Fold:
Amino acid sequence: MNFIDTHSHLFLEEFAEDLPLVMQRAKAAGVSRIYMPNIDCSTIKPLLDTVAQYPDYCFPMIGLHPTSVNSDFREELKVMKELLDQSHPFVAIGEVGMDLYWDRTFINEQFEAFETQIQWSAQYRLPLVIHSRDSFEEVYQVIKRNEHKNLKGIFHSFTGTVEEAERLLQFDGFYLGINGVVTFKKSTLPEVLKNVPLERIVLETDSPYLTPAPNRGKRNESANVKDTLMKLAAIYQCSPENVADVTTMNALKIFS
Structure:
């Protein structure tokens, strides 16, 4: 049984000491591919170095994470745009979007950065991997304004309501990224997902964050995506193999 981790930051320093073992465990668990979203200019080199060490297994994205957007965000975007204009290995624009949980100081800059990176997605015909925290309505309206551009991608780490899921799935090319949050005791996601077709879901870990039960509290890694898969099999009352097959097909549609 093979499946895909569509969102993992294994290039971060949390994995510097044991990355080969982390990769071995992922492969042993059944992870056939790992997609890696960028954070900012400081992470581009470690991201690409990791991808080079694991060719045809790890695949990079390029983007500026909303929590990294500040007064010099245009300089960061300029560096990334120059890379996109060259022959490049990037399979998506990500991780991009809005985050108003920590701070609203740079909300206007976040809007501009998000819009700019949506233009990249359309220009280079690359999917978007969208981060949205305490900013559902803002993100929804931005995507709605750009709906005519035939965008596709993933709403990463979806934890919203049935109504929010329905609104996001109106965008035909988009899928919901489900990670370890669905295994948390107080999570409402299991009930919400009963209203979401499995055909619109992809698996992710967001490693090293959001570790699923039973390892919650420990560093997350790609092998743990299997725990999320098993939870989804219980929610959808189907075999783990079916969840693996459907979510893998969904991921490959996005990152084709």
